[in-house]
Amino acid sequence: MNKVYSKIESINGSVITVRAEGVKNGELAQIETAFGTSLAEVTRIAGDTVSLQVFAGGRGVSTGDQIRFLGHEMQVSFSENLLGRIFNGSGEPRDKGPALHENLVEIGGPSVNPSKRIMARRMIRTGIPMIDVFNSLVVSQKLPIFSISGEPYNQLLARIAMQAEVDVIVLGGMGLKYDDYLYFKSELENGGALSRTVMFVHTAADPTVECLKIPDMSLAVAEQFALQGKDVLVLLTDMTNFADSMKEIAITQEQVPSNRGYPGDLYSQLAARYEKAVDFDSAGSVTILAVTTMPGDDVTHPVPDNTGYITEGQYYLKGGRIEPFGSLSRLKQNVNNKTRDDHRTLMDSMIRLYASYKDTLEKKSMGFMMSEWDEKLLKYGTMFEKEMMDLSINVPLESALDMGWKILASCFKSEETGIKSELIAKYWHEA
To answer: What is the three-class DSSP state of 55?
Structure first.
């Protein structure tokens, strides 16, 4: 039987306090207010004093309102019926479809037992050359997309959602502008990917506490699909909004702040989500790709700084492109030796020449005379940025590798590239 209380001790913004017994941290409660019923979550217990974070905020809550503890933490329904659906941070339909209540699973559980994991060994093809060729995305990998505000990171996620060779996409949006929410919805619909996608969306106008539930809901559903043998790609945007919501709630709860006002457990809270990435030894997998915006392009900001210690590299989005020098996939060596025999060599050679191109650009800007080699590098850099770095390009990995060889042949002689003669003989075609 659910416990019911009808006396609220205090109301501080969206945090209310009640005296209760036999409840646990994280447990859900329903509050009957003059504005209707709202969910609340237990966030602190001190003796018989219980603090709850009200999802809909403290407006309209009075000390005589009835509180009913539900006896469980936040749950989400799981079934194949989730595919093609859109929900909010409380698990309620946002797409005007029917509510789902079957097969409820608790969110925010522990990460998978290490003995049930296998080493990352399979590549996820995205059709984007800057990912597939130079920093391959690997099944069960956890990677952030570091970006400054204004970069097309949501557009990049939408392209990956439509093009990635996986069974299921789970998209978790935190603090989205309504325009961004509609963009994701229309792009996935028009691209034919919505039928294999589940969306959990928190907009900037929704209750702050719901933002914290989006990653947990997304990952709980992803894990259930993975246990059915499916490869699942979880796309999260934006983890900085998630951290900011944590900070806002921590301030309301009068927690002692840490670096730049963020709570002291920021690292462990981020790690608890990212560590859900897994490749099961006898089932499917969960791969996580999460946008992390950097205020002022500051990589030392607490959110990207802590993220870097948890994840296996990063994609660095700048100027509408994935920058090759700021980006790194630490697990790419597990897969790019199994794709095509020229993959590693071509990747290394093209990046080395692109670095030389950057040096030449600097020389040119300072007024130095350009040599014949410099002119070749300038031509190469321009072609590389146009034909490989452009995020609108959608080609299979093998076609992208062939395109790389064509770019090299258009700009250099074969002996100028430093590539082994056996690969030159096999793949080089004079422009």
So the answer is: coil
In this structure, the answer to whether residues 159 and 235 fall within a common structural domain is yes
CATH code for position 230: 3.40.50.12240
C-beta of residue 56 within 8 angstroms of C-beta of residue 38: yes
104 and 143 share one domain:
yes
297 and 413 co-located in one domain: no
Distance from C-alpha of 374 to C-alpha of 221, rounded to nearest angstrom: 53
The one-letter code for the residue type at 317 is L
Cα distance between residue 264 and residue 222, in whole Å: 28
Q: What is the rounded CA–CA span in Å between residue 363 and residue 376?
A: 14
Between the alpha carbon of residue 236 and those of residues 23, 49, 82, 209, the distances in Å are 31, 35, 17, 17
CA 354 to chain centre: 28
User: For the whole model, what pTM was predicted?
Assistant: 0.93
Mean pLDDT in the chain?
92
Q: Which two tokens stand for residue 64?
A: 């005589």
Q: pLDDT tens, 283-326? A: 999 999 999 999 888 889 999 999 999 999 999 999 999 999 98
> Of 12, 43, 69, at which residue does a domain stop?
69
Task: Give the domain extent around 10.
Answer: 4-69
Q: Which tens digit of pLDDT belongs to each residue from 259-277?
A: 888 999 999 999 999 999 9
